[in-house]
């Protein structure tokens, strides 16, 4: 955070962008970082006893269960720094999308945005061409798809079968402002993010 | 103690550079055993922290991978003249792809050096990496390729759809040994048709690892050598997959009813 605001005092920037919660198994956070945010009042939730779920999974669980009386019908969880680095971490993050398929979760990296398109719905994806695209893809994560249909892509699918080991839609191109997708299987949607 | 390695190196480049080399012969068993080892990660030149590209038998760049080789190779040898590095040491034998990413000056440079340029821009059904792997598979058909291993550098990071396309190449060419490399991780496919023994070189890889059922759930996977071993465990996206696991020794064994991706972290030197 301080590097994004080089003209400002680092401590001031960090105070402005204070996390409300730090949750996980605490095997990565540095001691001075933990102490800094603890003194600022950040809630620290140590789940080091739980080695069955990833840190992201733990955080999504927290959000899902947070303030149960709150209307979360429009909840969207944005995960920054979700890609790159270790590949197993990346796959663990994709799996969180699949495990919480009823929640809107968007994974972000410098280059791409990913979210799940559950098979239970038809999907309309509104493209903001000033900030995303044109490169995109649809990936049958976890299960093959016997039939997927799209509009708004350069290479649209038409009841097309997709599977790893066969066809998956990568290096596709969005052709307009709207993409529609329907499939018999959960698909990952990914679109490139434009450099500003 | 690892069996000795006959070096048959084929280099192809995907986003950057790919190279391959020979591997261990398979021993026939009730189900064939496949051995895996990452000796290609060992530096062969003390001053060079990268694997030796010069030992590769064939080097390909997949379209824009040539840009990366052109730009980045001289940075590895800052004391040397950039043109010399590009010309004499790290010239691709082939550049193949749909040619929509390679810069004109890069294409011209390698063309003048004699690199074979294979323009497949009419083929929009396969990725540039796929085209390169096909080239290798079909290259010199009389050559004994039983020990072929294809190494893909620059395979991860960047655009997510490219990454998925690269994983799909592993799945589409499941009978070939293909290893995807990034700065942080190494990935290869463990086909369900074999039991697998993965020899861990702890000086250069690990301890973090993972097993992922790509494309299809797995009803039953069994491992040894991991902190959290699988024991006829079911794995699927949306349920359990093995990530943030830890290798506990020098050997990991895996068998599964489904193709799995094996990944292990690469140590920073």
Please, could you describe this protein's structure?
The complex is a heterodimer of chains A (196) and B (269). Chain A starts with 9 loop residues before the first helix and ends with a strand. Chain A is built from 4 helices and 12 strands. Chain A has 196 residues and is an alpha+beta fold. Among the domains of chain A are: 1-52, no CATH class; 111-195, Thiamin pyrophosphokinase, thiamin-binding domain (Jelly Rolls, Sandwich), CATH 2.60.120.320. Mean pLDDT of chain B is 83; it is low at 1-29 and 45-52. Chain B has 269 residues and is α/β, with parallel strands linked by helices. Classes of the chains: A alpha+beta (196), B alpha/beta (269). The A-B interface holds A 51, 54, 83-89, 91-92, 94-95, 98-99, 101, 109, 111-112, 114, 135-137, 139-144, 155, 163-166, 168, 170-172, 186, 188, 190, 192 and B 124, 127, 156-162, 164-165, 167-168, 171-172, 174, 182, 184-185, 187, 208-210, 212-217, 228, 236-239, 241, 243-245, 259, 261, 263, 265. Chain A: Residues 124-187 form the Thiamin pyrophosphokinase thiamin-binding domain. Chain A: It comes from Theobroma cacao (Cacao).
């Amino acid at each position: 955070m301080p590097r994004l605001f080089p003209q400002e005092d680092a401590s001031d920037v960090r105070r402005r962008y204070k996390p409300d919660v730090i949750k996980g198994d605490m095997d990565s956070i540095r001691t001075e970082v933990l102490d800094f945010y603890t003194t600022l009042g950040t809630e620290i939730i140590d789940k080091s006893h739980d080695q069955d779920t990833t840190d992201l999974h733990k955080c999504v669980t927290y959000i899902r269960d947070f303030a149960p009386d709150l209307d979360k019908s429009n909840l969207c969880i944005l995960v920054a720094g979700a890609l790159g680095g270790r590949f197993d971490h990346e796959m663990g993050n994709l799996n969180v999308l699949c495990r919480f398929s009823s929640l809107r979760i968007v994974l972000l990296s410098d280059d791409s945005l990913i979210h799940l398109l559950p098979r239970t719905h038809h999907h309309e994806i509104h493209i903001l061409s000033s900030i995303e695209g044109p490169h995109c893809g649809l990936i049958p994560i976890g299960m093959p798809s016997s039939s997927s249909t799209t509009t708004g892509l350069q290479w649209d699918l038409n009841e097309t079968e997709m599977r790893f080991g066969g066809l998956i839609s990568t290096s596709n191109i969005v052709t307009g402002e709207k993409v529609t997708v329907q499939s018999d299987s959960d698909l990952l949607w990914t679109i490139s993010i434009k450099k500003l | 103690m690892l069996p000795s390695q006959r070096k048959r190196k084929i280099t192809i480049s995907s986003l950057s550079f790919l190279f391959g080399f020979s591997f261990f012969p398979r021993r026939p068993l009730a189900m064939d055993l496949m051995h895996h080892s990452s000796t290609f990660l060992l530096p062969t030149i003390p001053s060079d922290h990268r694997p030796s590209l010069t030992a590769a038998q064939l080097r390909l760049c997949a379209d824009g991978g040539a840009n990366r080789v052109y730009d980045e190779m001289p940075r590895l040898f800052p004391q040397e003249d950039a043109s010399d590095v590009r010309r004499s040491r790290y010239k691709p034998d082939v550049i193949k792809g749909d040619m929509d990413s390679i810069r004109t000056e890069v294409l011209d440079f390698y063309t003048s050096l004699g690199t074979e340029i294979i323009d497949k821009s009419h083929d929009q059904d396969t990725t540039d990496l796929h085209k390169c792997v096909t080239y290798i598979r079909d290259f010199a058909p009389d050559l004994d390729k039983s020990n072929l291993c294809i190494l893909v550098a620059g395979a991860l990071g960047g655009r997510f759809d490219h990454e998925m396309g690269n994983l799909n190449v592993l799945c589409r060419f499941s009978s070939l040994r293909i290893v995807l490399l990034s700065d942080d991780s190494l990935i290869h496919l463990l086909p369900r048709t074999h039991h697998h023994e993965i020899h861990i070189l702890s000086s250069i890889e690990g301890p973090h690892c993972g097993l992922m059922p790509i494309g299809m759930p797995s009803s039953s996977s069994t491992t040894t050598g991991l902190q959290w071993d699988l024991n006829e465990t079911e794995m699927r996206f949306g349920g359990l997959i093995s990530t943030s696991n830890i290798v506990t020794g020098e050997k990991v064994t895996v068998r599964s009813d489904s193709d799995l991706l094996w990944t292990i972290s690469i140590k920073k030197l």
